[in-house]
Amino acid sequence: MAKKKVVIGMSGGVDSSVSAWLLKEQGYEVIGLFMKNWEDDDDSEYCSTRQDWIDAASVADVVGVDIEAVNFAAEYKDRVFAEFLREYQAGRTPNPDVLCNAEIKFKAFLDHAMQLGADLIATGHYARVRQVTDGPQAGGFQLLKAVDASKDQSYFLHRLNQAQLSKTLFPLGEIHKTEVRRIAEQLKLPNAAKKDSTGICFIGERPFRDFLNRYLSYKPGPMMTPEGKVVGEHVGLSFYTLGQRKGIGLGGIKSHQNAEGNSEPWYVARKDVANNTLYIVQGHDHPWLLSPALTAGQTSWVAGQAPALHSLSAKTRYRQADVPCRLDASNDAAFSLAFEDPQWAVTPGQSAVLYDGDVCLGGGIIDSAAA
After folding, report:
1. What is the pLDDT of residue 76?
2. Strand runs labelled E in the chain
């Protein structure tokens, strides 16, 4: 019987490198695909594409798989980056990794892999796919959290659908990051000690405000307290995130003291886009930072339809523990969530992702939060 052909996205990082080796060990015919998705300033100090390609090709050599490079820069700019800028211009805070996975890694990449004759694709994400064996969804696919809870990336993958999941393998879903590093060292992979990438998906780490400056029009405006007192000037609403504490630029503004006589830090609490006003509050637990409910649009459900109403849990940002919530998905295009405990700095543009235990059900993009 012919081996199944798997095309794996190889980024030059340790996770996708070890994934390629694991797939080969499992008996698949493995082909590596390196995606180049950003070209605007590729000669600058921030874009590591050339080094990443060298690392990916070196790993492919050690592991013994063929690798090719593919350029999705046009698709990335059109489908991901344009939307990213639109959201920032509207005063929201998008999550480029969610868009990137939905539009590039599991759409453009998947299409390209199928043209290469692949049976399946794979990535180095920490998540799992499981086929349902009984019940009304028998034969369908579920997206599960990774075994390594500290690395789980199901939040970023919540927009994947049945067709995509049916073709996807996540070789790292069952193992811990420490084990991935150990395997890389044991295999003497050239990137075994390479740091994990951070920053904007495919664009990399760079001074964020300077970067956005190049693409967005922005207008300074008043920075105000809930009482209506102007305490400073913001540099443009796009450059601030709800809950942000550092880099607000209040400098020497004296803080009010709390009952204990301590000066509480300032936080970004609201953006009034119509009046170009940034509201800031004092204290981590100021009521303006806490939301008992939210509404979300651009919904995407892994099973193809909204889950039945019952007690679920949700994340409103990636590095957050799941919190109990009640879902109301009365129409296909939007839903609302009510929380048992008010949630901190719920941010329009970020994703609200729903879980039933380890099963990621899908989610949507936060439109607004109740005060």
Report:
1. 86
2. 5-9, 29-36, 66-71, 120-122, 127-131, 141-145, 168-169, 221-224, 230-234, 266-272, 277-282, 290-301, 311-315, 323-328, 335-344, 351-356, 359-369
Q: Catalytic residue positions? A: 100, 201
Q: 318: helix, coil or strand?
A: coil
Domains and CATH numbers, the chain: 5-208 (3.40.50.620), 218-284 (2.30.30.280), 288-369 (2.40.30.10)
Residue closest to 120 by CA, chosen among 13, 250, 30:
30
DSSP letters spanning 228-281: S-EEEEES-GGG--TT--TT---TTPPPPB-TTSPBPPEEEEEEETTTTEEEEE
Unique residue bearing structure tokens 């070209």: 39
**pTM exceeding 0.85:** yes
For residue 350 the two structure tokens come to 């970020």
Which of 367, 314, 306 is CA-nearest to residue 339? Answer: 314
Nearest one of 3, 15, 31 to 175, comparing CA atoms: 15
Write the pLDDT tens digit of every residue in 229-249.
Answer: 999 999 999 889 999 998 887
